[in-house]
Amino acid sequence: MPLNGKPVSINVDLGLKSVAPVKEDSMVIIMRIRLNQLDQQGMPRQEDMENLLNIEDRLVEYLARQCGAVFAGRFTQRGIREFYFYAPDTLGYRKALNQAMQPYSIFEWLAQAKMDKGWTNYFEVLYPSDLDFLRIQSKRKLAKLTVRKGEKINISHFLSFSDIASMNRFLSGPDAIGFSIEKLPAVVSAQTGRFELLLSREEKPYKGWIEGVIVPLFRKVSEYGGIYRGWEGNMP
């Protein structure tokens, strides 16, 4: 996933979103490691991967034991890997880091701890945007579909609009051509308070289908003030 034109790898505990921000864990601990073995894109080479995974395990263990910290995720870009933890306090966090890193003196590192009551680092640095989250979900769904090369399947697209006028503008535009309307709402949903539109179309989920079809549709729906909620694939 690129960020500002540079490749970036983010690993995040998505499950924390349902409870964040945790009032008791208002301190964020950020530990940054300079990578030693880099590829041409500034990402870690395979030679460093085992060490990095072992370091992560030790950080999780020692920070949990020393100050009750919870691992939120990691961020890797341009030769740097950052680890993010949330804790009720930071007493002894440097001792925990020193102990965790003792077998890995070949890595340069630094750390800081600060107040983050709103879990800003979790939501703004680690947690994926709506579009990136859609990409993640779509890749998982495609991996589960058993579709032969070139075979068409029926794809249902779930769209949501705040008002009928916006929904109708989208439906009357060129971006809705080729879709069948499976559900055209006349009133708002009692669950969401929005107009939930369901479209379908037979499609070939080829390599690059997510970027070529789903991402543009997400962006077009957003231009009309709508929300692209996701898709489901079914054999016709």
Q: What is the first-to-last residue Cα distance? A: 33 Å
| Approximate shape | elongated
State the secondary-structure class: alpha+beta
CATH architecture designation of the largest domain: 2-Layer Sandwich
Mean pLDDT: 90
Strand content: 25-35%
Low-confidence stretches: none
Please name the CATH topology of the largest domain. Answer: Alpha-Beta Plaits
Structure, described:
- The protein has 236 residues and is of the alpha+beta class.
- It folds into two domains: 2-126, Ribosomal protein S10 (Alpha-Beta Plaits); 130-234, Alpha-Beta Plaits (2-Layer Sandwich), CATH 3.30.70.970.
- It is 33% helix and 30% strand.
- The chain is built from six helices and eleven strands.
- The chain has helices at residues 46-67, 93-101, 120-126, 130-144, 164-172, 209-223, and strands at 2-3, 6-7, 9-12, 27-34, 70-77, 80-87, 108-115, 153-161, 180-183, 195-203, 227-234.
- It has a five-stranded antiparallel beta sheet with strand order 3-5-6-4-7, sandwiched between helices. Strands 9-10-8-11 form a four-stranded antiparallel beta sheet. A two-stranded antiparallel sheet has the order 1-2.
- Strand 5 (70-77) and strand 6 form a beta hairpin.
- It is elongated and about 60 Å long.
- The model has no long low-confidence stretch (mean pLDDT 90).
